[in-house]
Design goal:
heterodimer, A: 254 residues, alpha+beta, OB fold (Dihydrolipoamide Acetyltransferase, E2P), Ribosomal Protein S8, Chain: A, domain 1, 3 domains, 4-stranded mixed β-sheet, 17 strands, flat, B: 200 residues, Ribosomal Protein S5, domain 2, 5-stranded mixed β-sheet, 24% helix, 34% strand, Exosome complex component RRP46 (chain B)
């Protein structure tokens, strides 16, 4: 057992128990009297962690991360485990790329890489009405957001935000190239001011759609340029920053 | 190799493991994969899940765990089936299946070479595979095989020859935080007093 704060940035393994500063080792039987106790910040338990009697139980291996959320109370903030994983589990609010596998009446079935196919109503597109149906065919790629993602229910997707605008979501065009990478790489690419994206954008212009389910859709001016981007992105999984810069320098020459 | 090991073991009073190693994420198709080597015994594990359930095995409250043990040659027989059962029960104790109800977790173990202590190698490969797949686990676990030779001495991680000569072979699966026994199986006969292998 170790204090959660001391383990931030370090590798944790399933079965490790992280002690929280809010629960000092002294006996918990004693009641704290008076309002003198510091207002405890809300503790958020992110992916790879569970609450247990002693503190936080680690359930995945990876690096422990922590983010302070407002306030400044010692116990507050969010803890999570940054792990490398290939299989996607739907999470509410995540933007993903799905492949249409079936058209069943008024809903489409989408393969998003999870354990179950997601459903998407034909009315969940911008400007769609009962008469004006979106033109969706089996095999099309759709970029959408999870409205319902619950372990006990079928996940449900939409291609509009709460104000009814598409906001970039919808059917992805016919051409382009779809690849599948690990979820860790996707998170790295989606991080604000991602180095990889910034370096790639200096090569030549291209379109990129990143789905939290590990799918990337790329389209550049020519097929050759598209494939170059695809190969670099796939290789990023195993390259260090230094190797990546060398590889990119090769392409930026011509 | 075998002669060397016997020398080392004699020096350590019988309590010595063969050198072991592990490689994770070596297969591209499964969600998690691991190869585990214990001496000349090696097992390759591939893990799929949480994935769609095939057929009517779906459970409403937790994930279905399926273990497939493939022998080096031929089709799986009765021994493989019995080991699959043991491995499944061990993994079920550790995997937090309630977090992924109505899904299936499939663990495929391929024996690459058997030079003794195969079941413990399978257990170790399974744990490393689960870890690589990023499935929620309540703890880690490991497997160890012990052989009781005719004189009553304990040999850890026995080779095939030592297994053949042994009076009894015991395999344990032990979890990481409290070192509790998750699974135990015996082949051969030994008395209760001879079972000091149980961790304190």
């Amino acid at each position: 057992m170790a204090a959660a704060e001391a383990c931030v940035g370090q590798v944790v393994l399933p079965g490790d128990v992280l002690l929280l500063p809010a629960h000092p080792d002294e006996d918990g039987e004693r009641l704290r009297l008076g309002g003198g106790a510091a207002p405890r910040g809300r503790l958020l338990c992110g992916p790879g962690l569970r609450r247990c009697a002693a503190g936080l139980l680690v359930t995945k291996c990876g690096l422990l991360r922590h983010r302070q959320t407002g306030g400044g109370a010692a116990a507050g903030g969010a803890y999570w485990v940054d792990s490398q994983q290939k299989r996607y589990v739907p999470v509410k609010g995540d933007h993903v790329i799905g492949v249409v596998t079936a058209k069943a009446g008024d809903v489409f079935k989408l393969d998003v890489g999870g354990s179950e196919q997601a459903s998407l109503s034909y009315l969940a597109f911008e400007g769609a009405t009962k008469r004006n149906r979106p033109n969706v065919q089996v095999g099309d790629l759709i970029y959408g957001q999870f409205l319902v993602a619950n372990k006990d229910m079928e996940p449900e997707m939409v291609c509009i935000d709460s104000s009814g605008r598409s906001n970039g979501m919808g059917i992805i065009g016919q051409d382009g190239f779809l690849i599948k990478v690990s979820l860790g790489l996707i998170r790295k690419l989606l991080a604000p001011k991602s180095e990889i994206i910034q370096e790639l954008s200096q090569l030549y212009p291209f379109e990129l759609v990143l789905g939290m389910n590990g799918r990337i859709w790329v389209k550049a001016k020519t097929v050759q340029q598209t494939l170059i981007i695809v190969n670099i992105l796939e290789a990023c999984e195993y390259m260090t920053a230094e190797q990546r810069k060398q590889a990119l320098a090769k392409f930026s020459g011509n | 190799m075998a002669g060397e090991k016997e020398k080392v073991v004699a020096a350590a009073g019988g309590c010595c493991l063969r050198p072991f190693s592990c490689e994770q994420g070596l297969l591209s198709r499964p969600d998690g994969s691991a190869a585990f080597l214990q001496g000349d015994t090696s097992v390759l594990a591939g893990l799929y899940g949480p994935a769609e359930v095939k057929g009517s095995k779906e459970l409403p409250d937790r994930a279905v765990l399926e273990v497939l043990l493939r022998p080096k040659v031929g089709l799986p027989g009765v021994i493989e089936r019995s080991r699959e059962q043991l491995l499944r029960q061990t993994c079920e104790a550790v995997v937090l299946g309630v977090l992924h109800p109505r899904t299936a977790i499939t663990l495929v173990l391929q024996v690459l070479s058997d030079a003794g202590s195969l079941l413990s190698c399978c257990i170790n490969a399974a744990c490393m595979g689960l870890l690589d797949a990023g499935l929620p686990l309540s703890s880690l676990f490991c497997g160890v095989t012990c052989a009781l030779d005719p004189n009553g001495a304990i040999i850890l991680d026995p080779t095939t020859r030592q297994e053949q000569e042994a009076r009894a072979i015991l395999t344990f699966a032990i979890d990481s935080p409290e070192r509790k026994v998750l699974m135990t199986t015996t082949k051969g006969s030994c008395s209760v007093e001879e079972g000091p292998c149980f961790p304190p």
